[in-house]
Write a structure and sequence with these properties.
The complex is a heterodimer of chains A (647) and B (105). With 647 residues, chain A is mostly helical. Chain A contains 22 helices and four strands. Chain A starts with a helix and ends with a helix. Classes of the chains: A mainly alpha (647), B mainly alpha (105). At the A-B interface, helix 22 of A face helix 1 of B.
Chain lengths: 647, 105
């Protein structure tokens, strides 16, 4: 499809920056968005249409062994319903965040760097979305990872930002390495699968013409396939900050809020979920894999939400909520409803970006991220407060906001899956508990920031409403956060979410159990009411020091000590490893070299003694040599010749 | 004239060579060293003469001729050796080869 080539071309061009470059970046992001909308429109007109253009850049002949028909590496563009949907999310949020940045980042230094990195990120992300094979996917996957690293460390003078960037890079790297191993396992075990000359010979592509390449060929339950599936999960867990690789995401909030909104909420972290969706549609998971995915997703959902409950930093509360919501998506994919995961990804991108941008607007106005210093911001910042409230309601799953539909879908799909897989039940319960926690923590943040009469910290600057470039994205995202949930009710849009055998949009509201929906709405409403009771009207709920909940709060504030544990582990591991390496270097390698050196020195010292300069000594060497030769010739040689049977 | 056995003649040569070698290895006086070299060399010359005598054909003459050439060679060798002795004596004031150790670094 020529359109997508144009898209990639545009994105590549965009890297050449003008001096400030902000508007240039916005312009190109807008162009990309228009193209993405066209792509989506085209996909909607031709349901379930796959379009694949690829170029082979390396082709190797076959050899007996793993790749009997050889293999080729290709780079290509695949436009299918899910990539079109992702493209839409990435470019729309990307464009709005870029626009917002014009206002938000106005006073910062290093703007060309900022816009260049943001543009590079968008390029990489669109590339990832339209990749038509796993290797290309991995390439862009790493590229978005490095952009994330750059942007978290945007304020690199700040030690905490630099270390957060490093942490993000290292933690995701753990997942990436496993992901790469998983790719290799898939490559070897499925080299000849998929008909024709096989998967390897055709470049490990996701699709063959218009049919998924490995549909049916995969999905068995051999151990290697399970392992490969788990590796995919590990990769996704690294990128999407799932337990136990979640520690980097809250720290990633050291970057500019815009970056948090675009990369660490709406798009890049969703790449992990996208990977799982793609893998589940095109590669297939074994039942064991699915259980592991459900477990990781379900546990993370609850685990992250608990940490959000106590955190004082507005951005980190939203960050934990991102981890938690990503957990829902992973849960849905694991339950076998990949497209439900995509649906939640789609709505989440909008309301989470909205929340972040609203939070950014607050931070821009008052200059702090500490919720306990804010308060009473509703009156001076009406638009922001309304936007945050819409985002929060959507996140809490209150109808008719977008989050309600997708979250309800996730819950009901897991419920459906749990009917036949009893092992899923605990995670479904955790997911329901999270609905309550989610509503509570996000409204706690809302009331702390906006309710009351005045700011709690009088030293804060007088708050003011954001400029129009920041308000416009808020308006648009608010609109999307309200209506995005009903998009799938439009049949042609729903076709974007129906791909593969088990991927139909599962029961949207009304067709499943009303009781389930009522339960989730009820839990959400209860959470909001509790938050209102404890924190509403500018109240600050202080936990009594002797309360039994105090130790729980400490553990939560310290993030279950996992980060400290990782630090310790890293320290031990790296120091221990270094010490072994040091020992090896010093004693084994250096020792060997020094030994050889000393041996040579001693030997030459000994031999030197022979060089007396005395003619008679040399003469005696000659005589000894002749005598030795004679002995050799007369006595040894005949004996040797006789023993080898020579003449 | 009684025929001498090959063995006894070779024994003579071997003895001469051994005496020469012993002299070469033990003497420090350059002139004595030269004399020892000559003695050792004579063992080789004698060998040529014996075997020339034993061979019945006219080829034997070539062995005698080589013996004569070798005598000449020995004389030239002594001439060169004595020249070295003179040079050594003039340079170091001694003809003890123990003093001439400049080959050693």
């Amino acid at each position: 499809m020529a359109v997508s080539f144009v898209l990639v071309g545009l994105l590549g061009d965009r890297l050449k920056k003008l001096e400030h470059g902000g508007w240039v970046a916005v312009g190109f992001a807008g162009a990309a968005m228009v193209v993405a909308v066209l792509v989506v429109a085209a996909e909607m007109l031709h349901p379930s249409h796959y379009s694949d253009q690829s170029f082979t850049w390396l082709q190797l002949p076959g050899s007996p062994g793993a790749f009997p028909n050889g293999f080729s590496l290709v780079i290509g563009v695949l436009v299918d319903p899910i990539s079109a949907l992702m493209l839409l999310v990435v470019t729309v949020v990307g464009f709005l965040v870029m626009l917002y940045s014009i206002g938000y980042m106005h006073a910062d230094r290093g703007l060309p760097r900022y816009y260049a990195e943001l543009s590079l990120f968008l390029t990489a992300m669109t590339g990832l979305v339209v990749s038509d094979n796993l290797l290309e996917f991995f390439l862009f996957w790493e590229l978005v990872g490095v952009c994330s690293y750059f942007l978290i460390g945007f304020y690199y003078e700040k030690p905490s930002a630099a270390s957060a960037a490093k942490e993000a890079f290292l933690v995701t790297r753990v997942g990436d390495v496993l992901f790469l191993l998983g790719i290799f396992i898939y490559f070897t075990i499925d080299a000849t699968a998929g008909g024709g000359l096989g998967w390897a010979a055709s470049g490990f592509k996701f699709v063959n013409g218009s049919t998924p390449f490995l549909a049916g060929a995969m999905g068995g339950s051999s151990t290697l396939q399970t392992v490969a599936g788990l590796m995919m999960l590990a990769g996704a867990a690294g990128k999407s900050a799932q337990f136990p690789l979640h520690t980097w995401l809250p720290d990633a909030m050291e970057g500019p809020t815009t970056v948090s909104a675009l990369i660490h909420a709406a798009t890049m972290v969703a790449a992990g979920v996208y990977l799982l969706v793609v893998a589940s549609l095109f590669l297939g998971f074994t039942p064991d894999d699915r259980l592991a995915i459900v477990a990781v997703g379900g546990f993370t959902t609850f685990f992250a939400a608990t940490m959000a409950v106590v955190h004082p930093d507005i951005k980190r509360v939203i960050a934990y909520s991102t981890i938690s919501q990503l957990g829902y998506m992973v849960l849905a994919v694991g339950a076998g409803f990949a497209m439900v995961g995509m649906y939640h990804l789609f709505t989440h991108a909008f309301f989470k970006a909205l929340l972040f941008l609203a939070a950014g607007s607050v931070i821009h106005a008052v200059g702090t991220q500490d919720l306990f210093k804010m308060g009473g911001l509703r009156r001076p910042m009406r638009v922001t407060a309304a936007a945050f409230a819409i985002g929060a309601l959507s996140l809490s799953g209150i109808p008719p906001f977008a989050g309600f539909f997708s979250k309800d879908d996730v819950l009901s799909s897991v419920y459906t899956a749990a009917q036949s897989h009893p092992a899923y039940w605990p995670f479904l319960i955790l997911a329901y508990a999270t609905v309550f926690l989610t509503a509570y923590y996000i409204f706690r943040a809302f009331f702390l920031a906006f309710s009351g009469d005045k700011t709690r910290d009088p030293t804060l600057p007088h708050p003011h409403e954001a400029p129009w470039v920041m308000r416009l994205p808020l308006y648009i995202l608010s609109g999307l956060a309200i209506v995005a949930g009903v998009f799938p009710f439009v049949p042609s849009f729903a076709s974007l979410l129906s791909i593969g055998a088990n991927g139909n949009v599962p029961p949207v509201f009304g067709t499943t159990d009303l009781i389930l929906s009522a339960l989730s709405v009820g839990l959400g409403a209860a959470g909001i009411l509790l938050a209102q009771a404890l924190w509403g009207n500018g109240r600050v709920y202080v936990l009594a020091p002797e309360s039994a909940l105090q130790p729980v709060r400490t553990i939560l504030l310290n993030r279950y000590y996992m980060k400290a544990g990782y630090d310790e582990l890293g320290l031990r591991l790296v120091y221990g490893g270094s010490r072994i390496a040091d020992f090896f270097e010093r004693y084994v390698i250096d020792g060997t070299i020094r030994g050889i050196e000393r041996l040579a020195a001693r030997l030459s010292g000994t031999l030197r003694q022979g060089q007396t300069g005395l003619v008679s000594d040399y003469a005696s060497y000659v005589v000894a040599g002749v005598v030795g030769l004679l002995i050799l010739l007369l006595f040894v040689a005949p004996f040797v010749l006789a023993s080898v049977g020579g003449p | 004239m009684t025929e001498l056995s090959v063995a006894s003649l070779l024994f003579l040569s071997a003895t001469l060579l051994a005496i020469g070698l012993f002299g070469i290895l033990t003497r420090r006086n350059f002139i004595l060293l030269l004399i020892a070299v000559e003695i050792g060399m004579n063992a080789a010359i004698l060998n040529f003469v014996y075997f020339a005598g034993f061979s019945g054909t006219s080829h034997g003459l070539s062995g005698q001729a080589i013996a004569v050439v070798l005598v000449g060679l020995a004389a030239t060798e002594v001439a060169v050796g004595l020249a070295i002795v003179l040079a050594l004596n003039r340079q170091r004031g001694s003809i003890n080869i123990g003093d001439a150790t400049t080959l050693k670094l």
